[in-house]
Design a protein that fits this description.
Structural class: alpha/beta
Helix content: 40-55%
Strand order of the largest sheet: 5-4-3-2-1-6-8-7
Largest sheet: 8 strands, mixed
Shape: globular
Distance between the termini: 17 Å
Radius of gyration: 22 Å
Order of helices and strands: EEEEEHEEHHEHHHEEEHHHHHEHHHEEH
Length: 402
């Protein structure tokens, strides 16, 4: 019997959702509600090739959840709330407590609340979303799918920082890694494609947020993001890896507070900090106009990716089954993909197949495939990620096992 399951991803002022029919993983509808808590709240739902839109003031996530359910029922997408059997929530941080997805009960919810110090930008909205869905759909089981869970297989040599060890034992300061749901999806996909369980992969998830993960023998061995998603690659608005002394230096020199500096590192740095644009398409447009700062941002961004690929290439002792490009930028930007492969070609013996590269991505019939030549020592794949499917799979599996 087919059943309906929701995937929910809440921010501080947003609620994004997808409705699936399971177990066939058919996407029925998806939508988003924006500007929750403001006077001009609005929503858009995509269903059956049409857009359903609306707007009214929504004071909190509970009101947003009620609007979502009302729209699903009023437009005949579901007949009644009882059709929805489960809700999978994307949750940023599971700390060291959760190495897999879990059905949410009072203990799990309290654990998520208590880990807000590890995810201060994300957890408040996610917690509000969980509570709202519990009230709005009390008969549906709720499942937490943690961004950090997949990376809990990392060995200590990968996740311990060279700081006083008490910081780890007392405060849990360590590398956790993020985008785990995406990296898990890609790893499982590559196991199927290569017909091999103990795969060695370098997965490059590059969208506005970006991370690279080293998969060793089928498990996460190392990843670029750290205690928070701020570490690692240069991103749309995040600085990525910097000298930590910069924070104190800027506090002393600028008189900014610690919160102000962290806000600038998270929301006003990366590509945006260098060239004023955080969207890669806007940056590329500036480059085409000869903008020097956009060119600089591009080179710094590319350099950060190359360095992480090189690091993980050595961690895998050059025994790499595949490099995978995924997420918005690398799924669709043929120029960036070709430039990356050209930078890697001499040291790693991989060469771009220009025809294949130019015909995979947005606007093309092909969405995935190999974009390197047959003589390349390591194949480079473009594989679209699907975090929502990964979440709904975990949700369905856990609820059926409960």
């Amino acid at each position: 019997m087919n059943e309906k399951y929701l995937v929910v991803n809440c921010g501080s002022s947003s609620l994004k959702f997808s409705l699936y029919e399971m177990p066939n993983e058919e996407l029925i509808a998806k939508g988003y509600i924006e500007k929750i808590g403001l006077d001009d709240s609005f929503w858009t739902i995509n269903y059956n090739g049409e857009k359903i839109t609306g707007a009214k003031k929504l004071d909190n996530h509970k009101e947003a959840a009620n609007v979502m359910v009302e729209e699903l029922i009023n437009n005949g997408i579901v007949r009644e709330m009882s059709e929805i059997k489960g809700i999978g929530h994307r949750v940023l941080h599971g700390g060291e407590i959760y190495s897999d997805s879990v059905v949410i009960d009072d203990k799990v919810l309290n654990d998520i609340i208590n880990m807000t110090n590890l995810g201060p930008l994300h957890h408040p909205g996610e917690i509000d979303g969980i509570k709202a869905m519990m009230e709005c759909l009390p008969k549906a089981k709720q499942v937490a799918v943690f961004d950090t869970a997949f990376h809990q297989t990392m060995p200590k040599v990968s996740y311990i920082y060279a700081v006083p060890y008490e910081w780890y034992t007392k405060y849990k300061v360590r590398k956790y890694g993020f985008h785990g749901t995406s990296h898990k999806y890609i790893t499982n996909k590559m196991k199927e494609l290569l017909n091999k369980e103990d795969v060695n992969l370098i997965i490059c998830h590059v969208g506005s947020g970006a991370s690279i993960t080293c998969i060793k023998n089928g498990l996460s061995y190392d990843t670029s993001m750290g205690l928070t998603p701020l570490d690692g690659l240069v991103m749309g608005t995040r600085s990525g890896r910097i000298d930590p002394s910069i924070i104190k230096f800027m506090a002393d020199e600028s008189k900014m507070s610690l919160d102000e500096i962290m806000n600038e590192l998270n929301k006003k740095s990366g590509l945006k900090g260098i060239c004023g644009k955080n969207d890669f398409r806007d940056m590329m447009a500036l480059i085409n106009e000869g903008d020097e700062q956009a060119e600089l941002a591009y080179e710094i961004f590319m350099d950060s990716i190359i360095k992480h690929i090189a690091e993980y290439y050595f961690e895998l002792n050059a025994k790499v089954d595949a490099i995978i490009f995924t997420a918005g930028v690398l799924e669709n930007n043929t120029v960036i993909r070709e430039t990356l492969i050209n930078k890697l070609s001499s040291p790693m013996g991989i060469y771009v197949n220009k025809i294949a590269n130019d015909n995979i991505g947005y606007g093309h019939d092909l969405k995935e495939g190999i974009i390197t030549t047959e003589e390349s020592k390591i194949p480079v794949y473009v594989i679209p990620t699907d975090e929502e499917v990964m979440i709904v799979r975990d949700c369905y599996k856990l609820i059926k096992e409960a």
